[in-house]
Amino acid sequence: MIVISKGLLVVLVVTIFHSSVECAEFEGAARDRLPREWTWGTDTQGPLCGVYAASRAMSQVGISVSPAELCNSSVVGQRTGSTPAELAAAIHGHGGVARIRSAMSLLELHAAGGPVIVNVRSHPTKKSYDHWACVEVTDDGIVFYEGSSRGRVMPAAALLATWSGIGIVVSRDQTAYAWTLFARALASITLVSVAFAPVYFLKDRFESKSHQMFALVVSVVLTWTCSAFLLRTASGYSQGCRLALMPYKHSGSTLNSVGLEELVSATEDGDALVVDARRQSSFRLGSLPNSVNVPVDAPRYDVDAYLKKIPKNTKVYVFCQSANCNYDHVVARTLSEIGFADVSVAEIGFAEYMDWSAANTR
């Protein structure tokens, strides 16, 4: 009995300790867990996304070219943005080397040894690949650059889930890309060798050419099937992509609406998070008390990184300039998609709040 009592006492102490640690981690107002200083990047999910990606990639290899220098019809020749050929020509024109590749793999991305401009979906649930971004593989993982935002380390599955496989490998000289070509050639030679090995070693046992051809076809099909299965299983590709898309597929389709009184009450609730969806310049001129700024033009990865210490079950209230402004809906959708379960949009905005505040202070 004494031994059992001591064991139960140890379990009880450990449980209390973990509970106190969790409480300490999330104590205080929700806004107090956010960084005091944050530099927002600019969301460039538009026709100039390729310009920003090319500028970033060239800067990574030591070629300084601002996005403004690339804003011309030879680089952005389409209404929807730049083509791979236009971006490659712009990089060549500024002293860099650009190689356009399709069906790239993670192996080639690692072998690139530098920045790669990748063709991705602007939103994970979109069907079309309509966006350019810059990625680079480092010791910390895959660093994703979007627009002028800072690089964010992202899982390989998150990139694979939104990447078309088209990439522009950027370097300063021709030899830097040789490793990528070598990796692709080596993989192809190995696969072909494995496919033909059974036929070569067993060719004397086949009585006719038709039997040999049949064995060859079976060998190739089995080799490709087994290789694909083993690679997908070993890398967790399929499961990783599903996990990467899960927050977007299961995000809420509808948003709650709140009025002025509930919004004002939320500013006094330390457990709630009140979000101003206006641009940073407007937020700096004044906002609701105890509110934080998530600009409508902030890149999705910036938003996710900024709010990473906020529990996903926190009540979030989003507002913008006025009742006629839709910035709050845009930001609220983003918050819902990155995992926040209880997001509400205010029916009024900062302008209506100022009128109400002035009327109540007379």
Description:
This protein is α/β, with parallel strands linked by helices. It has three domains: 49-176, Cysteine proteinases (Cathepsin B, Chain A), CATH 3.90.70; 181-248, no CATH class; 252-360, Oxidized Rhodanese, domain 1 (3-Layer(aba) Sandwich), CATH 3.40.250. The protein contains 13 helices and eleven strands. A six-stranded antiparallel beta sheet has the order 1-6-2-3-4-5. Strand 3 and strand 4 form a beta hairpin. Helix 6 crosses helix 7 (209-235). The longest helix is centred in the middle third of the chain and has 27 residues, at 209-235.
How would you briefly describe this protein structure?
The chain has 362 residues and is of the alpha/beta class.
The chain-level structural class is alpha/beta
CATH class of the largest domain: Alpha Beta
Q: What is the total tally of β strands?
A: 11
User: Biggest sheet, in brief?
Assistant: 6 strands, antiparallel
Give the full name of the CATH homologous superfamily of the largest domain. Cysteine proteinases
Secondary-structure element string? HHHEHEEEEHEHHHEHEHEHEHEH
CATH second-level architecture of the largest domain: Alpha-Beta Complex
| First-to-last CA distance | 71 Å
- Compute the CA-based radius of gyration: 27 Å
Helical content band:
40-55%
CATH topology descriptor of the largest domain: Cathepsin B, Chain A
